[in-house]
Amino acid sequence: MxxxxxxxxxxxxxxxxxxxxxxxxxxxxxxxxGLPIHKVHDVFVPESMTRVPLSAPExxxxxxxxxxxxTAINMRRRLGxxxxxxxxxxxxVGIEYRGESYGLIIDEVGEVLTLxxxxxxxxxxxxxxxxxxxxxxxxxxxxQLMVILDVERVLGRMLDQIAA
Amino acid sequence: MDDLLREFLTETNESLDxxxxxxxxxxxxxxxxxxxxxxxxxxxxxxxxxxxxxxxxLEALAHAAETLMGKFRxxxxxxxxAVSLILQTIDRIKGILAELEALEGDxxxxxxxxxxxxxxxxxxxxxxxxxxxxxAKDSKAAKKKxxxxxxxxxxxxxxxxxxxxxxxxxxxxxxxxxxxxxxEVHVTPAAQVVAEITAxxxxxxxxxxxxxxxxxxxxxxxxxEARMNKQPSKSDKTDKTAALDEKDGEGDAKGDGKGxxxxxxxxxxxxxxxxxxxMVSELVLTxxxxxxxxxxxxxxxxxxxxxxxxxxxxxLQEGVMKTRMQPIGNAWQKLPRIVRDLAQELGKQxxxxxxxxxxxxxxxxxxxxxxxxxxxVRNSADHGLEKPExxxxxxxxxxxxxxxxxxxxxxxxIIEIADDGRGLNVDKIKSKVIExxxxxxxxxxxxxxxxxxxxxxxxxxxxxxxxxxxxGRGVGMDVVRTNIELIGGSIDLKSTAGKGTTVTIxxxxxxxxxxxxxxxSAGDRFAIPQLSVVELVRVQxxxxxxxxxxxxxxxxxxxxxxxxxxxxxxxxxxxxxxxxKSEDDGFIVVMQVGNVTFxxxxxxxxxxxxxxxxxxxxxxxxxxxxxxxxxxxxGSVIMIIDxxxxxxxxxxxIAADLNxxxxxxxxxxxxxxxxxxxxxxxxxxxxPKAVPLSLVTRLEEFDIDKxxxxxxxxxxxxxxxxxxxxxxxxxxxxxxxxxxxxxxxxDAGRSMGLVVDExxxxxxxxxxxxxxxxxxxxxxxxxxxxxxxxxIDIGHFLPLAFEDWFTRKEISSAxxxxxxxxxxxxxxxxxxxxxxxxxxxxxVTTCASATEAMRRLGEGERFDVxxxxxxxxGVNGFxxxxxxxxxxxxxxxxxxxxxxxxxxASIERGRQxxxxxxxxxxxxxxxxxxxxxxxxxxxxxxx
Lengths: 164, 943
Hints:
The complex is a heterodimer of chains A (164) and B (943).
Chain A: E1 20-28, E2 31-36, E3 40-44, E4 59-65, E5 68-74, H1 75-78, E6 91-97, E7 100-106, E8 108-116, E9 120-121, H2 129-132, E10 135-140, E11 145-149, H3 151-163
Parallel strand pairs in A: 2-11, 5-7
Antiparallel strand pairs in A: 1-2, 1-8, 3-6, 4-5, 6-7, 9-10, 10-11
Chain B: H1 3-28, H2 33-53, H3 56-73, H4 80-102, H5 113-130, H6 133-148, H7 171-187, H8 189-207, H9 211-230, H10 232-235, H11 237-254, H12 270-296, H13 303-323, E1 325-327, H14 329-332, H15 335-346, E2 350-355, E3 360-362, H16 363-384, H17 388-393, E4 400-409, E5 412-419, H18 426-435, H19 441-445, H20 449-453, H21 477-486, E6 490-496, E7 500-508, E8 513-521, E9 524-529, E10 533-539, E11 547-550, E12 553-558, E13 561-567, H22 568-571, E14 586-593, E15 596-602, E16 604-612, E17 626-631, E18 637-641, H23 643-650, H24 653-662, H25 665-668, E19 676-683, E20 685-692, E21 698-703, E22 707-710, E23 713-718, E24 721-727, E25 739-747, E26 750-755, E27 758-765, E28 769-772, E29 778-784, E30 787-792, H26 794-801, H27 805-815, E31 819-823, H28 827-839, E32 843-847, H29 850-858, E33 865-869, H30 877-886, E34 895-899, H31 904-913, E35 917-920, H32 924-942
Helix pairs in contact in B: 1-2, 1-4, 1-15, 2-3, 2-9, 3-4, 3-5, 3-6, 4-5, 5-6, 7-8, 8-9, 9-11, 12-13, 15-16, 16-21, 30-31
């Protein structure tokens, strides 16, 4: 936690003042994603989720997280990844967006990585449209690629669709 | 925008509202010095604060107005022109304030010389009227000075006389002066008190004719007050509120005794309250969890303290809830001014009576009803009340009255807006309704006045002959209704020609805490606000209340009314496969939204719970079925059903219609014994026709293509048998497409469809046939809903469907006692012949196989006659007959064989097996004849 960015390091924002960004890594459908650390409020195990009838398919439900009602987003469905098989425990990353709490349901949480901003590459042109929409770029790590998950776009796009 | 300015804006706006009200009062009682003092004080404070904050434009305006009022205090005559002018000035000030807020603190550019000139002229005139030359100079000087170098007089200490005023002091110096004096005043409230006393004394002296001195003192006092409000806000919050409090208290004591409703209070940011509310909710939840844990441990030492915590929490919750409550008078504050302006504009005399201004309700609700209320008061003034001369003609006082009253009733607040005007013009509304195509003339004919009045709530409806600047744009009442209904309220209207109109609004006390009914549907729990729940009905397939269907649409007969039903699960699209669980078993939550009543079918009902509504996430806000969500005592999140959304989804325009006419209140009340429920319909002619509802089994609508033509008559397949259709008369339109409505009459297994043009309504009326009829099929005419209505003689139509309907009926009491066992392995024949046998007057039991029949018989069931198929898997008909004949118990029971195979050999085989008769399967008359033959001797014996 050495340097904390004052600007938005993810996504289209290219003028990040510091040279590195810390990412919380998560795995969704076998793919490694990174969320800018200052976006992540907490990591929790979702319990007793209440499904919301008539909601968008990506919405897994709502749940009570320490007295706040959190809207849970099924990230697998959001990314068009087939649902998980078996009954392994699920995890959620708690984020705030436009004054409301959301929980992104993911498969598992990994370590926190500090990465050079210079190492970030733009989305490959042939990336799945649904992924490109919410990806803020790609980092090449040793052995695997980490897609930067742009929280604004993940939720903003969903809200736009509702508004439309 | 800095805190100071924000504070100034809220405060000034409030003060201006009070000035509005006070000025209207003052106009009526120009000699009431107390009111004038109050106004003067408020305007003065505004002026002083403006000067302090460096808002010259505002200050100049306020000053000019103040000068004019100063003249009033000195005895200048008060006329409505002058008051109008001051009100105009107040409006201008409000306008500038609004811009100021929008511009984040920059005073908007602009000139107010027009108004100021008028105000000055008026002051001069007042001066002239007073003919006191010495004062003219003063006011002039004051005006001039105010326009240019406003804040001057602020620093003048009370002891200084007027000659020192022209001494100019820069704003910087002024600020410094304030800073210096501030702590002194701050720590010693005495200084403030002194200032107040001097101010009060000044006011007195002003009244007694030493005005100059008085004004100065009052100003100084006001400045000190103003400064006290501002200054500490930067340093110490608590002090600020204390100062405010004191100031308010002082205002109360000094001002009008009955006081403005906002006195005795402190100003707290709404967000702070909301946050507090949330935290208390959390506390409640945590407490509930603790209680749950302790419940599991019997002798816990936590029990007693926890009980205490529980009580404290409950009280805390109640207290915080109270902070959100505001007197409804806050929403009424602007009305006196509006009414006054209207009265002037329209040339009417209007008195506004306000009763129950102290009635409290949630501030959120308050905000939402402000505009509807204003609109309705405008309406009353514009449309309701007559001009003085017209009032005189109709023997009323020249002054019309609009009475606003509010009071609590149950969990609701009732607000009434009543006027003693001319009442609604039914004919005008009628012609407008027809013009707008909302209803046909014929439909209107049948409506009671009350129903017709309700059309004024229809979108785009206005009866004002000409569009006035006041109302008549036709965007009013429907918006009012929508707004009211949005917050779970309802609106009702009564009007008597010549006597006036009363609009009654019923709204919930609060939106934040809702008492809800927790229900279960498809495994999930949902909360339904109690406010819209009328009653709960348990339904079971075999119980008195059961779900019936009209073409897949479930309905419930509830006290002679058809209630449209919708399963919650279907509504929410969460239908699950309901194995072993009939959709017809469950609970019906009867809900009323506005005038629409409907039933929501749920699987289970748990309990009621007071819940704190939390808004839905933006992500979910598009779902109209939910109004919010909340966390229950057990920590789980639950969705709150929005009754308006559900009503909208059901979209039963017909249901709305029906209920509109039967007046929603009746749903709650018991049924009047003297009245009969009548089904109103139309057939062949526009005149309404009616039958007692109790005779009608069902109301159906069949798709035209379901109507079949056979054997010279129209038939529909209905519940497994054919139902003949009878057209009520030749005028009944045979539709080419869509659906054909009909009344179904069923009796002893037979059904007949009486085809009509349109089912209109169900009404409860005394059935009193006044004029008899010679026409066949009509009993006579009666007055229903104020219209002559033909009462249809169902007895005439039943034989048209089945010639023997009544002859059969005569023997049916005997026939019905004969039980018949019908055995056939083919469901088709069981379904086809079962009703036929039933129609023939038998109590039919069907069995799908011989073995099933044997089991039933073996168990002791007895039948008067047995009809059996021959070709059946397993045990066939012959074997069955043989077996039965060997048994002494069935030796004499007639058995009839029914077979598709009708050869002489098989008939012979049947006789040998012991069958009394052998009938071909398709020979229904033969079967009936055979049954008659085998049962009639017995009947003879029995008789």
